[in-house]
Amino acid sequence: MNSGDIPVLSVFGETIPRAYERAIKEVWEKGVSVRTEYDLPEDPPSRDATVVITVEKPFGQPRFHRSFADGLGGLSEYVMEVVHGAHDYWIKPREEILKGIDSTDTRWTYTYHRRLVEYEIDNAIIDQLDFMVQKLARTGYSRRAQGITWNPVLDPPSDHPPCLQRIWGRLIEDEDGDLVFNMNTHWRSRDLYKAWFENVIALTALMRKIAEKISKESGRPVRLGRYVDISDSLHIYGSYFRELEGNPDRGIKSFFERLESRSFED
Predict the structure, then answer these.
(1) Cα–Cα distance for residue pair 239/226, rounded to 1 Å
(2) Relative to the CA of 80, which of 115, 233, 253, 257 has its CA 20 to 30 Å away?
(3) What angle do CA 130, 229, 142 make, to 5 degrees?
(4) Which residues contact 176 (CB under 8 A, 6 or more apart)?
(5) Which residues, other chains included, contact 147 with Cβ-Cβ below 8 Å and sequence gap of 6+?
(6) How far apart are CA 230 and CA 144, in angstroms?
(7) What are phi and psi of 52, to 5 degrees?
(8) β-strands 146-148, 164-173: how paired?
């Protein structure tokens, strides 16, 4: 790579936890140092890279990592938010969103679920997930089945625009003639250490829901294939470095020492 280039990394894992650990190691060792708009003055620059992560078996076991930021309760709530729209009620009105950073309304400007199933454009409401289901149920090999989140009117003024930008799916027949649903997600920005894992658990739950609906519409069984996760900026914030590096003086192992001191199955 040339000086000033953002590294482009590729990570493969059979399961989500495997991919999570390998992605952290890759970005930590090979990411570029760069500041972010959320840093405090005393924070070191983040480690950052453009990263493509493939999870071969999104529901392979173990599906859950022993260490993730929000615990099972928070993870369950987040899955309900993304897959079922549990927090769609907490979106502030359009006129408040357009105020950008001048808005005093503390509610959110979006949820992924609302943007995917009730995308507003030209006074119309578009259910993009339903389009994906109907399109693939009719023409499984179509390359046009996708849903976007970015709104070019509402999002540029926001301090917290959507990280997820697009989901894309396609059906492929395996060697036995069975349908396999493959899904990609594209992200503008990702907090690798404390958000990636929960993001992927939720998005693969949505992947399964889409596959089930395609199966119902097409009248054919549909199984899940690989999940691919593409991030323009996958980063580890400088404020997390102490957690990753540990503290040898106090006998606290680094994240990587903990990985090396146990088998993955443990």
Answers:
(1) 32
(2) 233
(3) 40
(4) none
(5) 115, 116, 119, 128, 129, 131, 132, 166, 167
(6) 18
(7) -110, 120
(8) antiparallel
Q: Residue 186 forms beta bridges with which residues?
A: 166, 230
CA distances from 68 to 53, 169, 176, 194 (A): 18, 27, 38, 7
Distances, alpha carbon 73 to alpha carbons 58, 68, 78, 195, 221, in Å: 20, 12, 9, 15, 32
Going along the chain from its start, the domains and CATH numbers come out as 8-260 (3.30.572.10)
DSSP code per residue over 218-242:
HTS-EEEEEEEEEEEEEEE-GGGHH
Secondary structure (3-state) at 108: strand
Helices (H), ranges, the chain: 16-30, 71-84, 94-97, 112-117, 128-138, 197-218, 241-245, 255-260
**For residue 148, what are its two tokens?**
């976007």
pLDDT band at 243 (very low <50, low <70, confident <90, very high): confident
**Residue 96 CA to its chain's centroid (Å):** 27
Q: CA–CA distance from 231 to each of 49, 90, 189, 205 (Å)?
A: 8, 27, 6, 19
d(CA 96, CA 109): 9
For residue range 135-179, what is the model confidence (pLDDT) as tens digits? 999 999 999 999 999 999 999 988 889 999 999 999 999 999 999
Task: Give φ, ψ of 188 to 5 degrees.
Answer: -70, -45
pLDDT digits (tens, 9 = 90+) for 212-240: 999 999 999 999 999 999 999 999 999 98
Q: Which residues make Cβ contacts (< 8 Å) with residue 104, sequence separation at least 6?
A: none
Are 72 and 46 within 8 A, CB to CB? no
